[in-house]
Amino acid sequence: MDSGPWRIKKGKIPGELLFIFYKFQYIIHVIVQRKLWVILNPIAGKGKAAKQHPKIDYFLREHGCNYEIILTKGPGDAIDIARNLPLGENDATVAAGGDGTCNEVVNGLLTRTAASPQAPIFGILPIGRGNDFSSTPGIPENLEKALDILIEGRLSPLDAGFVKGGFFPDGRYFVNGVGIGFDTKVGFDAAKMKIKSGFAYMLGAIINLIRFEPSPVIRIRYDDKETTLPAVIVSIVNGRRMGGSFYMGPNAILDDGKLDICYVRHRPTRLKLIDVFFHYPKGTQGECEEVYMSRAVKFHLTAIEGSMAAHCDGETICYDGKELEITCIPAALRLIGLQHGV
User: Fold this and answer.
1) Can you tell me the distance from the alpha carbon of 44 to that of 60, in angstroms, rounded to the nearest whole number?
2) Quick one: which of 51, 179, 189, 276 has the most CB atoms within 10 Å?
3) Which fold has domain 164-330?
4) Amino acid 95: pLDDT
């Protein structure tokens, strides 16, 4: 009897069935072999993340996962939790929250004293306010879809960045990027607002355009290049998006062993800065003659006049810094997610 496209002839199994079988077998292997340590920040998303806790717990339990959910209690707690987890060889540490939670979990994983022959496995459930970093590898904000990706468990190498200076003379890791100048001041103002990240960032931008404060003059050295410029907008990134909807590094690649730099070459007029800034939500600022983009492994920034305000992954690095050193750490982590650039 003809059973359609799934019929088996002469003992042969159709390729479609083999694909489904091996995919199912792989997922079962991951679920059985890998424990998921979910570090959940209940105040992420202005407290909305706490409501996702029972949904995450139910999903992982129903899918037979080996898991544990640990709630953070305050700033810096996720670093300590991730640093001290009793991780098995194939275990994954999952940041359930926003970009700040991701940053803390990464800093915990990359400062563990227990040596491991392989890079730590890092997963993300983007239930925070901005969820900028997770947008680059294409991890959806829809919780069920993000959980599906998590339990499927496909791994990709993930670079990290490391910045030294300001409040972190010994350095701090990041996965998304460092912002200096205008966008940092915008981020500081946006963080004080109670509205959604993208709208808060836009409102913060308007406030800072009205202020139009003078920019510090900085020297940037990377590879064999050196440039001196007013730090109007300077972004050094691993991921592509910051501020909820602004593509500060639209061409960034998460596993190329380099960080992207995007900066405004000179201080424009207020009207020209408005024009340049509104290219960022589309990632088309490279079309502006005032904007320069490149990539390198290491950057050294020095404030020649004035001082720098800087952040990494939304965490404040300095308000009045004089010197920053920023380096790419290739394949520092293994990311659970879709292919980069999706």
Assistant:
1) 20
2) 179
3) Tumour Suppressor Smad4 (2.60.200)
4) 98
